[in-house]
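Need residues for this backbone.
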């Protein structure tokens, strides 16, 4: 026999309360019996009976597992790479508190929603880098998410192509030549998060490769069409003529990318946050078996002990005995 739960503070507290209350009851009963010059040996019968069904309740509470069996457990999941735009425009405050801070909150939602799947992070601007490889470790992912800022990548124009090519390269196992490779690719997804300002030349080719491999590409646009200024350490970013730079959401490129690969475009702006819709769409992607493990399991028989304890308690209530004999 093994146990679902180990004895803890709750169980020890219940046992201590039972013993203290019953000790007080016995002391009071014996005191009355002495004053009446009578016997109170029957109190021990009640003590034994009540101790038995109290012990049965405690055993049921701990979840006794009786018998052992082995069964196969299949771990089914997806692989998801999230590419996050860290160009200076992501500091714009048209979405409060800023586009990047709003993205961080969305990323934490995604990590929570896909705990059973492997997630990796890619950061990009004019170039792209793996910030966190595919992992099941949600705590590690959240640590990397908290550290995201626009100083992690070099300043320059945003290039979607670099990020998409890197994500596809990390998702596709080039050594997998078997006939199920295409099926495996259908359990892979890329999420591209940006304000839509793409200056790359390789984006179209990268999207075609993603489409050929059968990997789903979802895009998440962040910002407003009215746009907003870009804060700097000394005020706001200005152009060569001293005018404040206003960056606006450009959703057209993001929409074309997602449509080409059978994915979907979603948006975060002042009035709308479609992250939950994005999560629902990715949830509809069927995962594949990543690992099959043999685990030992037992059958929790707490109900037997609980039933026996209840029957003894009912017997104790219905059939009384004389504690003090005159």
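Answer:
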């Amino acid at each position: 026999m093994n146990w679902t739960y180990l004895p803890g503070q709750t169980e020890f507290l219940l046992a201590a309360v039972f013993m203290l209350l019953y000790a007080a009851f016995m002391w009071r009963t014996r005191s009355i019996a002495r004053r009446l010059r009578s016997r109170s040996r029957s109190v021990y019968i009640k003590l034994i009976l009540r101790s038995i069904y109290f012990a049965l309740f405690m055993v049921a509470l701990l979840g006794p597992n009786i018998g052992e069996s082995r069964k196969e457990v299949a771990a089914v999941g997806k692989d998801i790479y999230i590419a996050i735009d860290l160009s200076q425009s992501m500091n714009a405050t048209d979405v409060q508190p800023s586009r990047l801070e709003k993205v961080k909150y969305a990323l934490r939602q995604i990590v929570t929603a896909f705990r059973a799947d492997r997630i990796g992070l890619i950061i990009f601007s004019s170039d792209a880098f793996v910030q966190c490889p595919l992992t099941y470790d949600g705590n590690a992912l959240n640590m990397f998410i908290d550290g995201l800022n626009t100083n992690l990548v070099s300043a320059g124009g945003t290039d979607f192509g670099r990020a998409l090519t890197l994500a596809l390269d990390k998702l596709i196992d080039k050594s997998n030549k078997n006939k199920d490779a295409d099926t495996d690719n259908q359990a892979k997804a890329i999420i591209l998060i940006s304000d839509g300002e793409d200056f790359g030349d390789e984006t179209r080719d990268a999207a075609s490769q993603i489409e050929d491999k059968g990997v789903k590409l979802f895009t998440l646009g962040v910002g407003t069409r009215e746009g907003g200024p870009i804060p700097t350490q000394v005020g706001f970013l200005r152009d060569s003529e001293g005018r404040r730079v206003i960056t606006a959401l450009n959703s057209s490129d993001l929409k074309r990318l997602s449509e080409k690969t059978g994915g979907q475009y979603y948006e975060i702006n002042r009035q709308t946050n479609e992250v939950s819709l994005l999560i629902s769409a990715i949830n509809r992607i069927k995962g594949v078996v990543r690992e099959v493990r043999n685990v030992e399991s037992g059958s929790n028989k707490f109900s037997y002990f609980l039933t026996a304890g209840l029957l003894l308690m009912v017997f104790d209530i219905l059939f009384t005995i004389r504690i003090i004999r005159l």
